[in-house]
Amino acid sequence: MCIIETMKHITRPHIICHMMQTLDGKIASGIPGQEIIMDYFDLYTVAEAKLDSKVWMFGRKTASSFAEPFSDLPHSESEDIEGDHVAQSQGDTFAVVIDTQGSLRWDKNYINLSNQSKEFHLITVVTNQTPKEYLSYLRDKDISYIICGGDNVDLNNASLKLSQIFEIEKVLLEGGGSFNGSMMAQGLVDEISLLLLPRVLNKKDAPSLFDQETSELMTTNYRLQSFTELERDVLWLRYAR
Prior knowledge:
With 241 residues, this protein is an alpha/beta fold. It has one domain: 3-Layer(aba) Sandwich (Dihydrofolate Reductase, subunit A), CATH 3.40.430.10. It is 22% helix and 23% strand. It has helices spanning 2-8, 41-51, 60-63, 132-140, 155-166, 177-185; strands at 14-21, 55-58, 94-98, 110-112, 119-126, 144-147, 170-173, 191-196, 223-229, 235-240. Strands 1, 2, 3, 4, 5, 6, 7, 8, 9 and 10 form a ten-stranded mixed sheet that branches. The longest helix is centred in the middle third of the chain and has 12 residues, at 155-166.
């Protein structure tokens, strides 16, 4: 009874999806090595700083750009790998990554972002199906992880644990279209902070802002909170649900 009452009072963080897109809704070219929006990264960073968040959240594909090349897992001496793990060396700035298959490799328990001076300590979201060897690997690296879901990741549970365990109140979601789409499908995007760029890609299979694979019609309505005209004909739009 006490546990149930306690869980009722746990609130999840406010999640802001902060992204850039072209006029036709594309966030990347879909062609490796060919960028279409990064020459506006300076304006993106200015807007990002005004959102004032200490926590970033990425899907596995985006997080892989910060990780080491894939390698076999080293031998681990860890034996107790039950439950969530909170690293001893953590600050108040975090990078939350999804890695249910245990494919990302790290040389330290934090990442550095090009436009930030602080270290962002890693929190890996895994499931009950994530290999135990990988959980041992994360413990040996002193990397925090939270177990959320069985066969599929439970993103809602993950958001609750971010609040409950790490006392996180605000998260910037900056994933790819697929991960953003998964967050949207579970009703976890409270706000959209969007830089609309004066550019058209005109490529059908290029990634979009939200790319959930579904045959169902699912719409989420937002209301315009503010719009700001930035340099070089860029509009910064902020929507709240």
